[in-house]
Amino acid sequence: MKAFTALYLANAREFVRDRLAMVITIIMPLAFAGFFGMIFGQGDQAAGIRLGLAVQDNGPLSQQLVAILESPSMAESIGLTVADEEKLVESLRAGDLHAVLVLPAGLTERTAAGEAVNVPVYYDPSSQSSTGMGLGFVRSFLNQANLVAQSAPELITVDERSVMAEKQNPAAFYAPSMLGLAMLWLGVFGTAMPLVEMREKKVLRRLAVAPLSTRTVLAAQVGWRVTVGMVQTILFVAFSVLVLGLILGRQAHLILPIALLGAVTFVTLGYFIAALSPTSEAAIAIAQVVNFAMTFLSGSMFEPEFLPAALRPAMYIMPLTYLSDALRQVMVGFRPLFPLEVDVAVLAGLLLVLVPLTIKFWRWE
Amino acid sequence: MNEMALQVTDLRKSYGDLKAVDGVTFSVATGEVFGILGPNGAGKTTTVECIEGLRRPDSGEIVVLGRAFGADDPEFRRRLGIQLQSTGLYPKLTVREIMRLFTAFYDDTLETDALLDLVGLRERQNAPTAKLSGGQAQRLSLALALLNKPELVFLDEPTTGLDPQARRAIWDLVHDLRREGRTVVLTTHYMEEAEELCDRVAVMDHGHIIELGTPRELIAKYFRETAIEVDQVDGLTAEGLAALPAVGQVTEENGRFVVFSAAVPKTMSGLFDWAQAHSLELGQMVVRQATLEDVFLKITGRRIR
């Protein structure tokens, strides 16, 4: 344990004192996320709330609520579209509305009878405007509705229904995708290249004759890099929420575990590249190819729909596709390319394949 | 206690067609300073790295400190001190941090400050290892080989590329190790180093040990003679020199003839007579003892460097 700790700290010091490594693995992905999130994210900040209203109840309570929403004082802050539920949800999906409120049939009758009623509210969890302004407005509005209905306990409860817009806030796409990319870079640039350099400078060789088990040396190196990955993830989440204004999805508790799996898998990929590379020139070449292919073919740099059809199949063999997809899902509830279980299985499967291969091809010098 | 610190029997290691080590056998007694001497590519480093467990020999038996050596045996490695010929350290860690790192690998170690003083790196303790000079890096490497108070120390060309002062500092350290009764195996291609430091020397060439003994034995065996170095001038030939009285052998190196003579006055007087008879103007002359360098040249027909 003493040896592990000492080696872990040695790796940490080497990394922290290497400004280039710091910039590439920590700052660059954040800068990318910020850059893409901001330049493509402008249009989302619309003034006023575009609210869809579907009225299925003709009772006095509903009429009263509609009247409030249509009142001139409300018109300043909300643009109201009244139509049927299905049509409005379509509009929400197209990104034309921020939220859809449905006043369900029997609302007046049932609340009058003292029965609690769930009022459906549709919103787009990937859009800051939708979740922040749209959903926020409807919630406070329904609180007022409870006052209007003079119901105690509160009989009108909000039934939040998330609807993924076809065109989501670019930041919701870029922040998790760039976190996935950050894990890739941690593996290829933060792991493979320094390792080959350490091998060429014969640092690994010196460790090989010290009284250390291979396991201890590898555990300390992988351990430190995974730590970097976790710090990276926390920074990303903080940046996404505080700077890009994203609202975390319901599965936000899975961000760290998914990022951990991604970090371990890609750091192992880094070891595999290092094992295959006889020289640092070779490592740079392989790292560049892997980086280029994954960045552009994984649907991380731009949405997968933008890929030419001919290149679409390549997306399925890029491990980063699955990590970025999983991170998008758990971070902001972005519409999935694959079920989360598939993403996790692919990453874990790759890890299980890479570990024995890396051990087989590993060389200390 | 086993009297043999190291026994190597019929060690073989090939790289493709090249037989780097081709049936090497020797043993090193506890407390002995044993030198492996030879030119670059003789197989010295391959031999030592097989013993250290860095390379897997094709065949042969290696017994270190009384047991067959297992490369993946951290516990056993604690008893060894290893300085590699070519090695690197974390470039951005300081000398002191590197010492601390390696100290953490062992249970019983020398005190860091004392060791820094010993290798003369106290003033450079806060320098990143990448900023050390060749000599300083070599001394740090030596310090790392010594910090666990090893019973058996391997030094692979510890002074190659160092200036005379740095070399002298390392020689002093090896003398200290010898006084403390530690066993040292060192490789070198400096003859004077082997003569200065080693109790016994194995001379290697082309993967074989071609001679083994104390430096004095080897010189006595091959050279009962004294070397006279004569500048080459027009008219002076190796054949002519070989025909002089008491001359055993004549070799050429660096623009000089080296004449090995069993009786210097006879050879010298013959040389002067010959020069006069042929109206030759002789250049510089140096008379010296034969060295291991000469031994190597005589055995292999080649200079060591």
Tell me the layout of helices and strands:
The complex is a heterodimer of chains A (365) and B (305).
Chain A: H1 2-16, H2 19-41, E1 49-55, H3 60-70, H4 72-75, E2 78-82, H5 85-93, E3 99-103, H6 107-112, E4 117-123, H7 128-148, E5 156-162, H8 170-200, H9 203-208, H10 214-242, H11 255-276, H12 280-297, H13 312-316, H14 319-332, H15 340-361
Parallel strand pairs in A: 1-2, 1-3, 4-5
Antiparallel strand pairs in A: 3-4
Helix pairs in contact in A: 1-10, 2-8, 2-10, 8-10, 8-11, 8-12, 8-14, 10-11, 11-14, 11-15, 14-15
Chain B: E1 4-15, E2 18-29, E3 33-37, H1 44-52, E4 59-64, E5 67-68, H2 74-77, E6 80-83, H3 95-103, H4 112-118, H5 134-146, E7 152-156, H6 164-179, E8 183-188, H7 191-197, E9 200-205, E10 208-213, H8 215-222, E11 226-231, H9 238-242, E12 247-253, E13 256-261, H10 264-277, E14 285-289, H11 292-300
Parallel strand pairs in B: 3-8, 3-9, 6-7, 7-8
Antiparallel strand pairs in B: 1-2, 1-4, 4-5, 9-10, 11-13, 11-14, 12-13
Question: What is shown here, in short?
Answer:
The complex is a heterodimer of chains A (365) and B (305). With 365 residues, chain A is α/β, with parallel strands linked by helices.
Q: How would you portray this structure in words?
A:
The complex is a heterodimer of chains A (365) and B (305). Chain A is an alpha/beta fold and 365 residues long. In chain A, 65% of the residues lie in helices and 8% in strands. Chain A contains 15 helices and five strands. Chain A has helices at 2-16, 19-41, 60-70, 72-75, 85-93, 107-112, 128-148, 170-200, 203-208, 214-242, 255-276, 280-297, 312-316, 319-332, 340-361; strands at residues 49-55, 78-82, 99-103, 117-123, 156-162. Chain A has a five-stranded mixed β-sheet with strand order 2-1-3-4-5, sandwiched between helices. In chain A, helix 11 packs antiparallel against helix 14 (319-332) and helix 14 (319-332) packs across helix 15. Chain B has two domains: 4-219, Rossmann fold (3-Layer(aba) Sandwich); 224-289, 2-Layer Sandwich (Alpha-Beta Plaits). In chain B, the strands form three sheets. In chain B, strands 6-7-8-3-9-10 form a six-stranded mixed β-sheet, sandwiched between helices. A four-stranded antiparallel β-sheet of chain B has the order 2-1-4-5, covered by helices on one side. With 305 residues, chain B is an alpha/beta fold. In chain B, a hairpin with a 2-residue loop joins strand 1 (4-15) and strand 2. Chain B has helices at 44-52, 74-77, 95-103, 112-118, 134-146, 164-179, 191-197, 215-222, 238-242, 264-277, 292-300, and strands spanning 4-15, 18-29, 33-37, 59-64, 67-68, 80-83, 152-156, 183-188, 200-205, 208-213, 226-231, 247-253, 256-261, 285-289. In chain B, helix 8 (215-222) packs across helix 11 (292-300). The A-B interface holds A 2-3, 5-7, 9-10, 13-14, 17-18, 198, 201-203, 205-206, 208-214, 364-365 and B 52-54, 72, 74-78, 80, 82, 84, 86-93, 97, 100-102, 104-106, 128, 144.
